[in-house]
Every structure is written in structure tokens, then in C-alpha cells.
Amino acid sequence: MLTTISPTKPVVLPHFVLVTDCTVIVPTYNEAENIGQLIPRILEHDRFRVLVVDDGSPDGTGELVAEMAHNEPRIGLLRRPGKLGLGSAYIAGFQRALAEGAEFIFEMDADFSHDPGYLPGLLAAAEAGADLVLGSRYVAGGGTTDWGPGRQLISRGGNLYAGLILGLPVADATGGFRCYRRQVLERLDLSRIRSNGYGFQVEMVYRVLQAGFTIREVPIIFPDRRVGRSKMSRRIVLEALINVWKLRFGRI
After folding, report:
1. Which of 59, 84, 192, 248 pairs as cysteine with 32 (C-beta 3.0–4.6 A)?
2. Given pLDDT bands bounded at 50, 70 and 90, which one contains residue 229?
3. Locate the Glycosyltransferase 2-like domain: which residues (predicted)?
């Protein structure tokens, strides 16, 4: 005789929740040719979401990101009325990411000079205990490609200059591919950050060290941008040179 056994308790299937505790901040100005390809590469990693901070790009970058975000909750967009500067874009992005609960907050460029494939490595170093992880061009295994002698001189010279004046124990303080643990950005007074060009990266390293946090560098290969024009200018370089001395003497 066939006996049917009815379960006394309901069968509960395992429920898997997608954890997205990593926010990648990408500042943009006229990056429509790159951003549509970059965002899917970042989102290949399940724990990551993207926050684009667009400074009123006239080429439609903001509109493109808004369209992509319509059906993808892991894409965020912060639109600003015009070119307000790299540093202020990152500060605004940090504040939004913290408010949304991110545990690990990343910086990267929109032009594919920062390969999204390095993101898990930066995260692994942060999870291993580093408070700030720098994607470094100037440690063993790192490097640059497609750069002329002039750009090499400016980049390496800038790092040497900042390192000597500020006593920075890192090889690549000017790079913009990095990961912060949440506690670092919560501890720092972001309203004190004054550099708004590429000197912003140097100032953040300096502030992190001043606050007693640990920094680790992991090697990356940094190619030249795929398309579009570099945002580097003489004014940005001059600001960085001056602000290093202001930091040294506590003027900012």
C-alpha cells in the first residue's frame, strides 16, 4: 500500500540576497563615448554599483547614464550644473555613497585608463585590512603604456615632488584609481579638502595618513585614454604644485 507523507513544516528554499556594498564613483565631463561601455564592465562584478557624477556634460553623458539607470538599480547618477572640478565631484560622490550605505567606496576615471578588471583586487586588499588602497603605477608589477616622455616626466616628477615635501610613504599619490573603507571617509572632515584638480588625490592621501589610517598599494597597468581629450591643464598642474606647500605648512 502506498502511503503519502505530508510534511509537517513548509519547505523553505534558500534565499540569496545580492550584496552591493561597493560603490564606484566615476566623475564625468563629455565621456559619452566611454561611459556606455565602462558601466557594464563594472557591473560584471556582483557586489559593485556605479555612481556617475556628471558635471553638465554637453555631449549627453548625463542623459545616456540616466537612460541606462532606468532599468538598472545598480546605476546611480548625480547631475551637477557645470564643471565644478574633480575634487568637488568626488566629495559629492563620497557623501552620496556614504548616505546610501556603501562599505567600500572606489574612485576611477571614465576613460578606460583604469581597467575595471582591477576592482576585485583593490577590494581584496581593503578587506584584508588596508584603509585606503591605491592602484599604483609605480610599484613592482605596475606601469604605464602609450605615454610620451613629457607625460612620464610630469607624472613621476609630481609624485616625487609631493612625496618629498609631504613625507608620503607611497609611490603613486597622484593616481585616481583607489578604494576607501567607509570608516576613513566618515572620520575625515571632507569640508576641509581644498584641492579641486588632480592635487585632490595627493591631499586625500595626506589626510588619510594624518588621521592614522593605513595605505596599501597594488600594481596596475595604466594605458592612455581610448577616446576623447585629457582634462589635464596647466592650471590644474599649478594648483597641485602650490597646494603641496600649503599642506606642508598647514595653510589648507
Report:
1. 59
2. low
3. 23-188
Nearest to 119 by CA among 214, 25, 225, 45: 45
Region at 105 (left for phi over 0; alpha for psi -120 to 50; beta for the rest): beta
Task: Name the band, by pLDDT with cuts 50, 70 and 90, for residue 133.
Answer: very high
Is the CB of residue 188 less than 8 Å from the CB of residue 208? yes
Beta 178-181 vs 104-107: how paired, if at all?
antiparallel
How much helix, strand and coil, in percent to the nearest 5, is found in the chain?
40, 15, 45
C-alpha to C-alpha distance for 60 and 132, rounded to whole angstroms: 33
The secondary structure of residue 223, as a DSSP letter, is: P
Q: What is the largest CA-CA distance in the chain?
A: 91
H or E segment at 96? helix 86-99
Which residues in the chain belong to E strands, given as ranges? 22-28, 48-54, 75-79, 104-107, 132-136, 143-144, 178-181, 215-219, 221-222
Side-chain half-sphere exposure of 42, counting CA atoms within 13 A: 30
CB 28 within 8 A of CB 35: yes
Residue recorded with cell 606642508: 248
Chain centre distance of CA 55: 16
Is-contact 170 203, C-beta < 8 A?
A: no
**Packing angle between helix 199-210 and helix 149-166, nearest 10 degrees?**
30
Grid cell locating 193: 579638502
User: What is the distance between the alpha carbons of residues 205 and 158, in angstroms, rounded to a whole number?
Assistant: 14
